[in-house]
């Protein structure tokens, strides 16, 4: 079993920055692809970014490219999402997720999920 804890959300003005963290624990946490998703009120959960276990491959949704950066610290079993130039449309609950499969934008591909952290961007 893998446990994921998301932290780092908050209220920020448009143009500001936040860094989300996802700390992973559990049995033999190795080989997992990690992803970030977000869900705004009344909308489906949407892919934001993902990083391979090695850290060598990353993927982003088009609307965050150039603004968000996913990274990981394998020694700490922690994945980060650095969010810059935030916009009101980035407002959502952000979730990290883990899968033993390759990078995917599909939520059902991910077996483990964090509890979510709220990001609110004011205009």
Would you write up a description of this structure?
This protein has 123 residues and is mainly beta. 0% of the residues lie in helices and 51% in strands. It contains no helices and 11 strands. It has strands at 2-7, 10-13, 18-26, 33-39, 46-51, 58-60, 68-73, 78-83, 92-99, 112-113, 117-122. The strands form 2 sheets. Strands 2, 4, 5, 6, 9, 10 and 11 form a 7-stranded mixed sheet that branches. The chain has a 4-stranded antiparallel sheet with strand order 1-3-8-7, with no helix packed on it. The radius of gyration is 13 Å and the shape is globular. The termini are far apart.
The profile of the biggest β sheet is: 7 strands, mixed
Give the averaged pLDDT, no decimals. 95
User: How much helical structure, as a percent, in the residues?
Assistant: under 10%
* Radius of gyration from the alpha-carbon trace, in angstroms: 13 Å
Q: List low-confidence stretches.
A: none
* Shape by Cα distribution: globular
For the structure shown, list the relevant keywords:
about 120 residues, mainly beta, seven-stranded mixed sheet, about 50% strand
């Amino acid at each position: 079993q893998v446990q994921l804890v998301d932290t780092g959300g908050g209220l920020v003005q448009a143009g500001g920055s936040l860094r989300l963290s996802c700390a992973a624990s559990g049995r033999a946490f190795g080989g997992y692809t990690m992803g970030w998703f977000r869900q705004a009120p009344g909308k489906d959960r949407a892919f934001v970014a993902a990083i391979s276990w090695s850290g060598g491959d990353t993927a982003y949704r088009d609307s965050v490219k150039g603004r968000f950066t996913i990274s990981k610290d394998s020694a700490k079993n922690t994945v980060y999402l650095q969010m810059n130039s935030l916009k009101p449309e980035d407002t959502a609950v952000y979730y990290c997720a883990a899968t033993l499969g390759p990078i995917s934008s599909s939520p059902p591909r991910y077996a483990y999920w964090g509890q979510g952290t709220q990001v609110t961007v004011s205009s």
